[in-house]
Every structure is written in C-alpha cells, then in structure tokens.
Amino acid sequence: MGGKAMNDRKTHACDRFTSLIAALLFAWCCIGMAPMARAADADALFESANRLLAQGKAAEASKAYEQIAAAGRTSPALERNWAQACYQSGRPGPALAHLRRAARLDPRDADVRADLAVLRTKIGNGLESSDDAAAVLRVLKLDEWSWLALGAVWIWCGMLAAGRVSPAARASLRGFTTGAGAVAIVLSALLFAAAKQRAGEPDAVVLAPDTPVRQSPLDEAKAIFAVPAAAELRVRDTKGTWLMVEETATQRYGWLKQSEVLRIGY
Question: In the predicted model, is pLDDT for residue 29 greater than 50?
Fold first, then answer.
C-alpha cells in the first residue's frame, strides 16, 4: 500500500509539472503572437492609408498614418507618405517635418532627399540643399557613425594589447596597428563632425503661418517677430511648454510654444 501511494504521488507531481510546462508554453506563445498580431494590424492600416492617399483622400490618410505612429511604429515609408498626405491636405509644415524624419531614418534614400529639396523649393523657406561635405556626413545615421568609430577603436586597442603581450606580434602587426589607428582617428573625427552637424541643424518646423515668436516664455510677452508655416528653426532651450528657437539664417531668437512646432527627433 505504501509503494502504491508513493507511486500515485509521483504520478500527480508529474502531471502537475506537465500542466505547468504546458501553461508556460501557452503563455509564451500568446506573448509571442501579440506583437505579430499588432504588426499585422499596423501593416493592414498602412496599406489602407496608402489606398486613401491614392484616392485623393489626403486628410483621412494623414489621420491613419498618425494612428500608426501613435502605436509606436515608424519607418521611412510611413514618414514619406505621411508627408505627402500633409502637403496634399494643405499643411506644408507637417509635410516638411515628416520628410525630415524620413531623411534621418534613412539618409541614403535618394528619393526622400529629392522630395525634400523639391518641397523646400515649393514652400520657399530659404534653406538650400547641403553642400557635398555635409552630404557625405549624412550618408550614415549618427548611431551608425558611432558603431563604426567604436569598432575601429576596439580593433586598434586589441592590436596594441596584442603587441604589448607578445613582442613578435608587435613586430608583425606594426603596419596593421598603424593603419587601424589611422582609421580609428579618421572615423572618430567623422563622428565628431556628424554630431556637430546634427547639433547645428534646425530641429523644429513651424506648423501655422505667421506664428509669433515672443520675447519671453509668457503668453502676454511681446511678439518680436513672426515666422511662416514650414519655417525650420533650431531649438536652443526649453522651459515648461515653451521652446527658445533660433532662425539659422538671421540668428534671431525668441520663444514659442511646443504645440506650435513639430520636432524632428531621431
């Protein structure tokens, strides 16, 4: 009787363990399927928005793109199509901001760069296309420059460490170590230049025409000048719901509300 009771307890324990494993596997499958389902929903909504845009329903398409972005999904294609929807619905400011975002997400997309140049010409915001040197720095995103520079520095440090451990390795790797050091220095300099370029770029786009820029971050403050829709401004400081912005061409600066511009980000 004792042996049978012990066997029954082992069987029950095994059944409970099996049930637990099955429950965990089911939960894991459910958790794994949820992002896939959300991605499928977003893809379907994106296709629906594209159809609306093709049918000339730009305002409805823009709302659909906004819904996708609100769910935390973005891509160069989304930002580019969203820009087109905004422009067709008479909103050049958001159109320019979304094209700028698309260019930052994929700086090597020639179509996005061409669209950006055409839109700036149409709206006449005074900004010209970048020179060749600036274009070279935009071939890669800032994080891509960072990874390249970091990888080159680590390779250089590894060769230096190998040379300190083994004099024979130092002699055989001397030329490679020198070359790796030069590459690391060049890539680090390019990273610094790309970061400096990004810091100097306008990173906010005005949404409405004749937006007043005020002397201080107060509603009752005097408006010292006004900026047109789609003007590109550099943000110098923040204070609550206010931004200190600067016109890069004239270097005039003042305060406007965050809700009056769209930040580029990325």
Answer: no
